[in-house]
């Protein structure tokens, strides 16, 4: 696009354009010149040029909920203490696979799931909470009485939702043994990780 702009800004525009058109006939098609009415020549020409040959605007991707949680763990210094992307738990009797973003051991192996509950409406939030509650309940029952017990922890972005909705979702999850934390209030979770894990201990005690 810079080379094209340079060509079009030369003197004897029409003659140079025809030469430019012929030279590049095999590379791309350049149409003959046509009259265009401009109200503001510099502004409108710049806008037309950008529309035709300008670089496309690259939209920045918003960080994922998992990335946001990772940043918090890094800031608090507990990220090195965690298992990253621990193996999925398969419950064959239910044909269910439970995945987690992080994991750590505190007597029970905790699977941490990051969930965005800001971008969906309350009805869908309650539906997703129900699904997480089922996963947490089945996970706890499957490993009940075993030495390798496991528990589901949900960390959710809730800043755009009413506080009462958070309490309702928390109650749904905790009835089935799943812990819910707000992304902007992780002090208790951070403390638990720090108390139960250390850089010199073996936190990777994941067992099916």
Structural overview:
With 208 residues, the protein is an alpha/beta fold. The protein is 41% helix and 15% strand. The protein has helices spanning 2-8, 13-23, 41-53, 65-76, 122-142, 163-174, 187-196; strands spanning 83-84, 89-91, 96-98, 102-105, 109-116, 150-157, 179-182. A hairpin with a 4-residue loop joins strand 2 and strand 3.
Quick rundown:
By secondary structure, the chain is of the alpha/beta class. The chain has seven helices and seven strands, in the order ααααβββββαβαβα.
Instruction: Tell me the total number of β-strands.
Output: 7
Structural class: alpha/beta
Supply the number of helical segments. Answer: 7
Unreliable segments of 5+ consecutive residues: 202-206
Average pLDDT: 81
Order of helices and strands: HHHHEEEEEHEHEH
Distance between the termini: 57 Å
**Major β-sheet, in short?**
5 strands, mixed
Q: How much β-strand is present in the residues?
A: 15-25%
Radius of gyration: 29 Å
Tell me the strand order in the biggest sheet: 1-4-5-6-7
3D shape:
elongated
- Give the helix proportion (percent range): 40-55%
Key traits:
208 residues, 41% helix, single chain, five-stranded mixed sheet, elongated, two-stranded antiparallel ribbon
Topology:
Layout: H1 2-8, H2 13-23, H3 41-53, H4 65-76, E1 83-84, E2 89-91, E3 96-98, E4 102-105, E5 109-116, H5 122-142, E6 150-157, H6 163-174, E7 179-182, H7 187-196
Parallel strand pairs: 5-6, 6-7
Antiparallel strand pairs: 1-4, 2-3, 4-5
């Amino acid at each position: 696009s810079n080379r094209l702009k340079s060509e079009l800004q030369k003197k004897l525009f029409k003659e140079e354009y025809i030469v430019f058109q012929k030279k590049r006939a095999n590379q791309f098609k350049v149409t003959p010149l046509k009259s265009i009415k401009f109200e503001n020549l510099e502004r409108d020409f710049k806008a037309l040029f950008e529309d035709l040959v300008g670089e496309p605007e690259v939209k920045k991707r918003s960080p994922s909920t998992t990335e946001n949680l990772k940043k918090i763990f890094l800031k608090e210094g507990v990220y090195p203490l965690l298992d990253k992307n621990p193996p999925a738990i398969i419950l064959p009797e239910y044909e269910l696979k439970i995945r987690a973003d992080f994991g750590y051991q505190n007597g029970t192996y905790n699977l941490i799931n990051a969930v965005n509950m800001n971008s969906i409406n309350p009805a869908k939030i309650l539906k997703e909470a129900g699904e997480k509650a089922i996963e947490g309940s089945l996970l706890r029952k499957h490993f009940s009485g075993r030495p390798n017990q496991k528990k589901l922890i949900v960390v959710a972005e809730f800043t755009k939702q009413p506080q009462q909705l958070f309490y309702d979702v928390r109650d749904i999850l905790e009835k089935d043994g799943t812990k819910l934390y707000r992304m902007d209030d992780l002090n208790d979770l951070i403390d638990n990780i720090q108390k139960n894990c250390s850089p010199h201990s073996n936190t990777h005690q994941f067992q099916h």
